[in-house]
Amino acid sequence: MNYTYIKGVPNEELVKGMQDLHKHIFEGAELEVSELKEKPQLLCCVAIDNARLAGFKLGYEIEEGKFYSWLGGVHTDFRGQGVASHLMELQHKVVQESGYKKIRTIGRNHRRAMLILNLKHGFNVIETFISKKGTHKIILEKDL
Fold first, then answer.
1. Residue ranges of the N-acetyltransferase domain (predicted)?
2. What are the tens digits of pLDDT across the range 3-29?
């Protein structure tokens, strides 16, 4: 497995791979290129296995010194192999080296594996809220 990162919007081939993987992970939901282009200081961390995208983790700056870990996932064929942990560690390393002091993410109760992973990697629950769509969300934050 090869882990790497791209600052900014990746090339078309990698974006297409992320879009396909996003659909696979999130029940057919679309990941639009325009969404990627509008995120300040976008960071894309990817896991590639023999030219196949196994997982990705996206994030961006939300304010000076604070980074938001936005979106990510691992293909079902690669789950249970530590891919998500490696992607998170890579993201946190790059973010910290870039001068950020805090990293934040928002999770959902029904995605328990991701919540557990965040807690194992030092995030703390700081707040909960109900979204406009009526979904319960959990805000987690970590000092870098």
1. 1-144
2. 999 999 999 999 999 999 999 998 888
Q: In the chain, helix, strand, coil percent, each to 5?
A: 30, 40, 30
Nearest CA to 111 out of 29, 50, 39, 25 is that of: 25
Domain containing 110: what range?
2-143
Residue with tokens 């992970």: 25
Q: Kindly state the tokens that stand for 25.
A: 């992970």
Element (H, E) at 43: strand 43-49
CATH code (residue 61): 3.40.630.30
pTM: 0.94
Q: Which of 11, 77, 86 is nearest to 47 (CA)?
A: 86
Alpha helices in 32-82 (DSSP H): 33-37
Instruction: Give the chain's domain count.
Output: 1
